[in-house]
Design goal:
Blueprint lengths: L20 H10 L9 H11 L6 E5 L5 H9 L3 E6 L2 H9 L9 E4 L15 E7 L8 H11 E12 L17 H8 L4 E7 L2 E7 L1
Parallel strand pairs: 1-2, 1-4, 2-3, 4-5
Antiparallel strand pairs: 5-7, 6-7
Length: about 210
């Protein structure tokens, strides 16, 4: 069971040589790397914390193969946009659209740095970030961008591995967010609810 692939921690990376998110993630998707699927337990948590979409807009950051965006769109009834910095991921996601009705909208962009004015909605009832937040280099500015796009009363849904939950001798023991990174994530929200999925934690954050 795996989160995103291992990557040197930011403090050990030369800022002048570290690849851009697109340069880092594109080869993984292009070479067939895939990530943890949404199981029944996670689907139940999504329904419990996000509720029915009723056509309201949702944004999935780091949408990858599009599984979460499609779940929001087709299962929960949100009008969903999936955004990912890797062109191969966006191509994969759009190629799996098989519904006869409207499908999610797919955008290739880096949420953390690119101009977001091309997004179809000015605000979103739900913003999701699954197995992505751990890799965000500038977390406070990333979260500020999320807050600006989240509609009043909306929900920011984050799924991330928690550091230290794997066996210490395992190859992925350094994955996951630290207690300090979790504190940055959960600060400045009026309501914070969490639920655990083995090595993962789900956060439902509301302004």
């Amino acid at each position: 069971m795996s989160d995103r692939p291992s990557k040197p921690r930011a403090e050990h990376v030369d800022a002048h040589t570290s690849p851009s998110p697109q340069a880092y993630w594109e080869p993984h998707w292009a070479n067939g790397r895939r990530y943890r699927a949404i199981d029944a337990h996670e689907a139940a948590l999504l329904a419990e914390h996000l509720g029915p979409g009723n056509g309201r807009p949702a944004l999935d950051i780091g949408s990858g193969d599009g599984s979460l965006a499609r779940h929001l769109h087709h299962r929960l009834g949100y009008r969903t946009t999936g955004i990912d910095c890797a062109p191969s991921a966006v191509t994969l996601a759009s190629g799996q659209d098989t519904s006869a009705g409207p499908n999610p909208l797919w955008k290739c962009a880096d949420f953390g740095t690119d101009d977001l004015s091309a997004l179809p909605d000015a605000a979103y009832a739900v913003i999701t970030c699954r197995l992505v937040y751990r890799w965000v280099e500038h977390k406070p500015s990333f979260l500020d961008r999320v807050r600006r796009l989240l509609a009043p009363g909306g929900c920011f849904w984050v799924v991330s591995e928690i550091h230290g939950r794997r066996e210490q001798a395992g190859p992925h023991r350094h994955l996951g967010i630290t207690a300090a990174e979790a504190e940055i994530l959960t600060a400045r929200w009026s309501a914070v609810r969490t639920a655990d999925l083995d090595v993962l934690r789900c956060y439902a954050l509301r302004p």
